[in-house]
């Protein structure tokens, strides 16, 4: 850090491992504020979870600071599917409910645990991980990252809904399934056409 702050100026169109800085004269307290994690979000996804990010795209004052937050709300049985954050380690704090969580190392070893209100679990940078609410009540966590924009790569979406598409022969061979199964998964994950 060579200055106290560098509030993101996405309109500048310039990025060098972050956003260009707003002129100091245009910075306000609103650049450091976000109320979007205060209440549970409305979960209407097919997997039963909703992630609300509080990163540099929502809080311009986070630019260059290397931190961000998120809130994840889960319906009973809801899942935050296997995914990775290529640019950050994540730590979750359970606000309510009980979740089964885990991550898989590059040696294919699963580390998993059930965590409940007030408890914390850490997912190392870049490793595939998940959270699942196995309770009969809603659950929620706050997640913290050591990046202002951690990035999220959902394995299912990455592999089955990429544009352009990952070739079917790659997916059938990798998952040892037929083309019909691949097409079925793709049809469920395809973006809804309006």
UniProtKB/TrEMBL annotation:
Alphabetical keyword list: Apoplast, Disulfide bond, Glycoprotein, Manganese, Metal-binding, Secreted, Signal
Gene Ontology terms: cellular component: apoplast; plasmodesma
Positions of Mn(2+) binding: 83, 85, 90, 129
GO terms for biological process, alphabetical: plasmodesmata-mediated intercellular transport; regulation of root development
Domain Cupin type-1 span(s) in chain numbering: 35-183
Binding of oxalate, residues: 80, 85, 90
Molecular functions per Gene Ontology: manganese ion binding
Xref: InterPro entries: Cupin_1, Germin, Germin_Mn-BS, RmlC-like_jellyroll, RmlC_Cupin_sf
Protein location: Secreted, Extracellular space, Apoplast
Disulfide bonds: 6-21
Entry's family note: Belongs to the germin family.
Protein name: Germin-like protein
């Amino acid at each position: 850090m060579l200055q106290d702050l560098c509030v993101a100026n996405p309109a500048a169109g310039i990025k060098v491992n972050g956003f260009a800085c707003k002129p100091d004269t245009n910075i306000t307290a609103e650049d450091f504020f976000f109320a979007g994690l205060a209440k549970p979000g409305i979960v209407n996804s097919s997997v039963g979870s909703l992630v609300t990010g509080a990163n540099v795209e929502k809080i311009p004052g986070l630019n260059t600071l290397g931190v961000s937050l998120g809130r994840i709300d889960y319906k009973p049985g809801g899942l935050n599917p296997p995914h990775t954050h290529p640019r950050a380690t994540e730590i979750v704090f359970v606000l309510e409910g009980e979740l089964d969580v885990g991550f898989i190392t590059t040696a294919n070893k699963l580390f998993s645990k059930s965590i409940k209100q007030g408890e914390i679990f850490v997912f190392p940078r870049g490793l595939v991980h998940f959270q699942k609410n196995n309770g009969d009540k809603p659950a929620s966590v706050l997640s913290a990252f050591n990046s202002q924009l951690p990035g999220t790569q959902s394995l299912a979406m990455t592999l089955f809904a990429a544009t352009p598409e990952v070739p079917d022969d790659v997916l059938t061979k990798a998952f040892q399934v037929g083309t019909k199964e691949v097409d079925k998964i793709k049809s469920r994950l395809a973006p809804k056409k309006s």
